[in-house]
Amino acid sequence: MVRTIVKIENLVKRYGSLVALDHLNLEVKEGEILGLLGPNGSGKTTALNCLLALLKYDKGTITVFNKEMHPTSYALKREIGVVPQNIAVFEKMTVQENIDYFCGLYVTDKQRRRALTEEALTFAGLTEYRKMLPKKLSGGLLRRLNIACGIVHQPKLILMDEPTVAVDPQSRNRILEGILELNRKGSTIIYTSHYMEEVEQICTRIVIMDHGRSIASGTTEELKRMIRTAETIRIEGIALQESQLQHIRELPHVFEAEYDQSQCLLTVKCTSAEHNLVRLLNYLQEQQVAFHQVYSQLPTLNDVFLEITGKELRD
Questions:
Q1: HEC profile of 248-299
Q2: Residues 283-311: tens digit of each pLDDT
Q3: pTM greater than the 0.85 cutoff
Q4: For residue range 111-131, what is the model confidence (pLDDT) as tens digits?
Q5: 61 Cβ partners below 8 Å, 6+ apart?
Q6: Beta-carbon count within 10 A of 238 CB
Q7: Are 10 and 59 within 8 A, CB to CB?
């Protein structure tokens, strides 16, 4: 039986009249890479700070490794690694000195610490930069240093808050591959990001938050089945009359059709059914409507988020 690593029950956090967390319930199972999604202000960072006992909360319970988390739960905190969104390293220390310092917060044995520091340098691909100061690193390398400092003590639970913000594609791929490797080695990971392609690529389960609550949970495919949109069809270079647009809206399984006259772009959303595209193209052929390009897309996480919350994922 897979054990529960993190369990949050009925968590409430208020800032005056603002309710940041509204009876939040969340479970993380051993071995998961849990994607925690939500627009800015949804409560993700507040939930993580409460989980780490960095914030006091008004109501609820938080257990980690089946033990209740408190500010003085130092034994539990030794099993947790944190990779914050903001870079948290010392500018006057070299790459190696930074990693060694953060390792020393958890590991007192010097020989063990040296070995772990070397492993983290290799893991993050920073061995050739070990003597450099952070200010000399590129943005991608600096992010990798941030991660190395957070995971050097080989924690069982890792919290990653948007670790790939503003990095180049090569560094992003290196970071994502590293996260999967950490998971294969036994770490359970909570991962927040606004890059939905990353979440689809690495996360085994996803929780969507809004207004301080968990409003949807499941695998990527399970979430997609929760929404009405099963297919989105976009047609470029098309000129439509209002009457034709209305007829398209009345086609079977079409529940939304929008036409951008300035861009000559038709966007049609359909429920799950066979031959949605064929029906639409047949109608356009009957009407002798010309067009340039046709795209048919299955639902994305962005579609899921928009339909469930009515908000853009990158708010």
A1: HHCCCCEEEEEEECCCCEEEEEECCCCCHHHHHHHHHHHCCCCCCEEEEECC
A2: 999 999 999 999 999 998 888 988 888 76
A3: yes
A4: 999 999 999 999 999 999 999
A5: 7, 8, 9, 10, 11, 68
A6: 20
A7: yes
